[in-house]
């Protein structure tokens, strides 16, 4: 199986979520199912069906997180330097709009554009890999062609 790259922060967040699901969410839903069973006829018991659905979601997420954590290769950005690679925090300026953006290149499980976490498999991240400060990057995105200049690269 292929290793899943994660930053230390991403690994910790996924591990914390797994602990929360196992120690808090799972026991709570089991109690809710037990309580709903006591109300009698399960075929018309909406509370029971909702609790079973939530249990199914929790169990699926636990399996998913255990799989990710089992295949995780944790990269510490503080030990890296040089051209852009996984875990780099990159400050870009859109050459058309002069809008500045900062992204950290992360693994798929921790990617969240709203938080500035850019999936390493995204077109922009793939275009940035190997580039240096001052370089210009052309990216074909679903929204069309974009040009960015790399202002700063940090490994934090």
Order of helices and strands: EHHEEEEHEE
Mean pLDDT over all positions: 92
Percent range of helical residues: 25-40%
What is the subunit arrangement here? single chain
Overall 3D shape: elongated
Please describe the biggest sheet, giving its number of strands, its sense, and whether it closes into a barrel.
5 strands, mixed
* Total beta strand runs: 7
Strand order of the largest sheet: 5-4-3-7-6
CATH architecture of the largest domain: Roll
Structural class: alpha/beta
The CATH H-level superfamily of the largest domain is: Transcription elongation factor, GreA/GreB, C-terminal domain
Task: Describe the model.
- The mean pLDDT is 92.
- Helix 1 packs antiparallel against helix 2.
- 40% of the residues lie in helices and 26% in strands.
- The longest helix has 30 residues, at 8-37.
- With 156 residues, it is of the alpha/beta class.
- It has helices spanning 8-37, 46-71, 123-128, and strands at residues 4-7, 72-75, 89-94, 100-106, 117-119, 136-141, 144-154.
- The strands form 2 sheets. It has a 5-stranded mixed beta sheet with strand order 5-4-3-7-6. A two-stranded parallel sheet has the order 1-2.
- This is Transcription elongation factor GreA.
- GO terms for molecular function: DNA binding; RNA polymerase binding; translation elongation factor activity.
């Amino acid at each position: 199986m292929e290793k899943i790259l994660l930053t230390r922060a991403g690994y910790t967040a996924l591990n914390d979520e797994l602990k929360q699901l196992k120690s808090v969410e799972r026991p709570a839903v089991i109690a809710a199912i037990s309580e709903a069973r006591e109300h009698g006829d399960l075929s018309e018991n909406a509370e029971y069906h909702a609790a079973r659905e939530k249990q199914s979601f929790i169990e699926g997420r636990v399996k998913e997180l255990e799989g990710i954590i089992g295949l995780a290769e944790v990269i510490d950005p503080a030990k890296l330097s040089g051209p852009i690679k996984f875990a780099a925090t990159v400050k870009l300026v859109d050459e058309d709009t002069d809008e500045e953006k900062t992204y950290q290149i992360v693994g798929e499980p921790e990617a969240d554009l709203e938080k500035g976490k850019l999936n390493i498999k995204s077109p922009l991240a793939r275009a940035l890999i190997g580039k240096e400060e001052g370089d210009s990057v052309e990216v074909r995105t679903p929204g069309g062609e974009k040009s960015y200049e790399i202002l700063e690269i940090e490994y934090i």
